[in-house]
Amino acid sequence: MTEFKLPELGENVHQGDLVRLMISPGTTVAEGQAVMELETDKAVVEVPSSVSGTVKDVLVKLGEKIKVGQVIFTVENGAGGKRVEARAPSAPTAKSEPKPATTAPKTAPSEANPVQSASPKATTPAPIVPSESSEVSEFKLPELGENIHQGDLVRLMISPGAQVSEGQPVMELETDKAVVEVPSSLSGIVKDVLVSQGEQIKVGQLIFTLEPGATSQTHTQQPSRAEESHDHARMAFQAAIQSEGKTEEQALPPDQPPAAAVATFSMPLHLDRAAGAENRGPVPAAPHVRRLARELGIDIHNVPGNGPGGRISEADVKMYAKSVIVAVASGTGPGATHLKQPALPDFGKWGKIERVSMRGVRRKTAEHMWEAWSAIPHVTQQDKADITELEQLRTKFGPKAAEAGGKMTVTAIALKVCASALKIFPQFNASIDMEKEEIVYKQFINIGVAVDTDRGLLVPVIRDVEKKNIVELAAELTGLSKKARDKKLSPADMEGGTFTITNLGGIGGTGFSPIVNYPEVAILGLSRSSMEPVWMNGKFEARMVLPLSLSYDHRLIDGADAARFLRWIAEAFEQPFLLSVQG
Amino acid sequence: MTEALQQNIAVVGGGPGGYAAAFLAADLGMKVTLIDREQNPGGVCLYRGCIPSKALLHVAKLIGESRHANNWGIEFGDPRIDVARLRSFKEGVVNKLTGGLGQIAKARKVQYIRGDASFENSNTVRIAKNAGGEDSLTFDRIILATGSRPAVVPSLKLDSQRMLDSTSALDLKDVPDTLLVIGGGYIGLELGTVYAALGSKVSVVEMTGGLLPGADRDLVLPLYKQLEKVFDAILLNTTVTAVKEEASGIRVCFDGKDVKEREKVFDKVLVSVGRKPNSEIPGLDRTQVRVGERGFIQVNKHLQTDDPAIYAIGDVVGEPMLAHKASHEGRTAAEHIAGHKVAFEPNAIPAVVFTDPEIAWTGLTETQAEKDGREIKVAKFPWAASGRAMTVDRTEGLTKLILDPGTERVLGVGIVGAGAGELIAEGTLAIEMAALAKDIALTIHPHPTLSETVMQSAEVFFGTSTDLYRPRR
Ligand SMILES: Cc1cc2nc3c(=O)[nH]c(=O)nc-3n(C[C@H](O)[C@H](O)[C@H](O)COP(=O)(O)OP(=O)(O)OC[C@H]3O[C@@H](n4cnc5c(N)ncnc54)[C@H](O)[C@@H]3O)c2cc1C
């Protein structure tokens, strides 16, 4: 009998919550086959088995916290059983621990024996997961980030015969924003390389193919991987943007008036001036390290040096690059405007406490909310919409939406209403670029809808809302909400929003002040509609009333405009005939 | 990258900045045109600067050493100097080097046009060719590397064969009996050294209170002592108020608190009072290039001017006006045009005064640190404690490290002594690599050499020098 223990998941990842178990007693497992999903504080990680055989006992339960080394299950007549030290393939090392992502995989092609690495071995950085069904053996250039569609291939790190593993950087692309390392999503042996250095490569273009047989594919739904490559691209991109503008000092200070009589000597006494740097002193880094920093778009003066006397090594620069990017992406970096949280008291003094790591979505939400709250001067405008007539319409069109696979909810209708309002009030469909002192008006309407999932708050985005009718919107919303709850949302599903709707009506409440989803400038909150007496036609009538709460960025939007915008929305709800259902 | 392949660039000025830029640009796949008035690339440095001056200084050093040999019981007698042959040796060196550059330009398919460049607009250069006729050529990018020329001071302007500047001094028409060098900067001292060795009675006049203004005094002192012997007079705190040509020579009027002789006649007068950037390029006003008050073309760290099509490098963009700075800038500009993310941002630029003894420094100087109010620690190793210095009977030298007190990192190195110019390279590497005093102390240096003094000065810093006992602090 053989035991399978939780292998190392990556540096600083010591435990995780078991969110999905894919085996039960009696299941046959093969080495490399995914057996469970763990949610660590970094991401959800799929854990492959290192043993083969028939599962006898499963010693863990869904929801349980599992530590590295803990026994997960035992197998009978196990064929495997060798200790696999390898890292889980999806350990998102790049996010927090830059080292393994760059160093380990990079050395792989030269060191790893292709034959050996065709099957998972103790030394391979990423075990290969043989995929039974659809064998993908082509690697195409993945999405690199918003607005990056192509790049120049500046460095190719693979050649035919090379062994690649998932996550391993295979090339460097120079986009108009930054140089980006592109990781492979496949593992196997490279057959043909279809691009060459210097070539311009587009998203989706075929980069290389693998030898048939020993291939494996990324599980595209796996959030960790998708997030990782996405973050990676974004990281480089942000760092580059950040550094722009800092590097353009003038080489010479304002000229001094010519020396009184004759200046005789002109040797390098004012190196700082000649070199154009402000007086920051020479940075303790070798020339090639400084050049690397420049290539990565990093101000070398900000890089902490770990060598003697604060000397900055190549590794320090790379480490810093990644940290900047992660920080920028999560809003904690130099770009973030908020202050540090004041120190906490010792709560233990007053009673028993429990500390639970803030993981995954919760941590992201915390960071994002903090960022939004500190960056945006919020005001919330309240209003009420009489939706008595709309309710009739909703009931009437319910079946039609159901036919299309959706549910005719107030949110679905609100999507349509808001899209129409945003067309009329474009400043609500904008962002502020304080640095450039510009307002960015978006000529598209993508509305995010806050979805409450058991993992926390997620905001999938519905695109081009103004071009869709309510029935279509209802169907799409239903689909996206389900995707959110099934943890199937990809980062792309949550990007590119221009406005957000959050509906707490299902739970209750008469109003609240939602936080604007930065970098958007407004968010509409819906509370529970209820029957209220409304003074109409000289008497009180029982009407269905929907409370509306609009929070907005007061930097861009004036109070009167907000009141008008919300009134427009309320009226649109009140007079649904104004909104063509087919719309 | 692909863009760079198609770029068509011009480099105006064929000095060490210009040809370095042109050659690298060609290597990076650009189509390059190099424009200069001379027959071959080389610029001031090769035709009338670094190279001819160093050829003559080598000879001066030999003459000096032959005299020095008296100390060791060897007498050569007075040298017989054939100025014509010396001149042709110097010219041979210049021709060989510049001719070589011409060959290299051809081999790299750099189109070399001899002529005078002016601007029609930001991208179009008109070339008045030496051979006659004019070309008007358009380029994607233009690099200005027009260098500098000797500065002229109105009060010293006199149209006379007896008045020299560095260029005519290097022509070596003859060896005057008496020579006044106006300006105690490196060019004046180097050329004064040459003429003194060849037999002229050389006087130097310097407006400020010391030679080589700006250089650390402890480095200048040994040179000063030597020059006091070699030169007829060193007049400090003295300005020349007027020069007049007379039958017997140039009458020079002096003014200043230490002046004893108000007037004196010299056979020849060398004016070396600094250099002026060649930024008065005709038509430059048709571009967006901005020229600062002192005449330097204004550029950013990438050597870009305010005109997106135009870069500028070398002496014309600012101090230090040195060949190696120009060529490093040239290469940086070429790479930037090729789309590389590069900037000119050295941590140290070495400077060498090729007198005897030589003075060399790199990175931070004590003088500069004092000016900036920056705290430093200085470790000095006097060459009197160097075995090698003793074997060559040149113990007047000094090697010092300028260190950051916190990290003990090497921020600057200063050396005076025979061969200081060759020794300074290690200092520059140390600074660029962010070496600590400990690194230098722990690096084995060959014995017996003067390079040991660099290691020994680091040992002095730790109070553990083998060759120099200093009571413990
Ligand atoms: C006597 C002397 C000794 C020196 N010794 C040293 C030394 O030991 N070490 C050191 O590092 N530096 C030394 N220098 C300084 C060194 O020569 C300069 O720093 C260096 O030459 C600058 O190079 P550059 O490329 O900027 O321009 P330059 O070498 O000045 O070249 C500019 C070229 O551009 C040409 N040009 C200008 N305008 C035009 C135009 N419109 N059209 C066409 N061509 C044009 C000029 O004719 C010239 O050939 C010395 C200088 C002198 C005068």
Defining traits:
heterodimer, A: 583 residues, alpha+beta, OB fold (Dihydrolipoamide Acetyltransferase, E2P), Dihydrolipoamide Transferase, seven-stranded mixed sheet, 12 helices, globular, B: 473 residues, alpha/beta, FAD/NAD(P)-binding domain, Enolase-like, domain 1, five-stranded parallel sheet, 14 helices, binds flavin-adenine dinucleotide
What does this protein structure show overall?
The complex is a heterodimer of chains A (583) and B (473). By secondary structure, chain A is α+β, with helices and mostly antiparallel strands. Helix content of chain A is 26%, strand content 24%. In chain A, the strands form 7 sheets. In chain A, strands 18, 21, 24, 25, 26, 27 and 28 form a 7-stranded mixed β-sheet that branches. About 22% of the residues of chain A have low confidence. Chain B is of the alpha/beta class and 473 residues long. In chain B, 33% of the residues lie in helices and 24% in strands. Chain B is built from 14 helices and 22 strands. In chain B, strand 12 and strand 13 form a beta hairpin. In chain B, helix 2 packs parallel to helix 9. In chain B, the strands form 5 sheets. A 7-stranded mixed β-sheet of chain B has the order 5-4-3-2-1-6-17. In chain B, strands 8-15-9-10-11 form a 5-stranded parallel β-sheet. A 5-stranded antiparallel β-sheet of chain B has the order 18-19-22-21-20, sandwiched between helices. The N terminus of chain B is likely disordered. Chains A and B meet through helix 5 and helix 6 of A and helix 10 of B. Bound molecules: flavin-adenine dinucleotide.
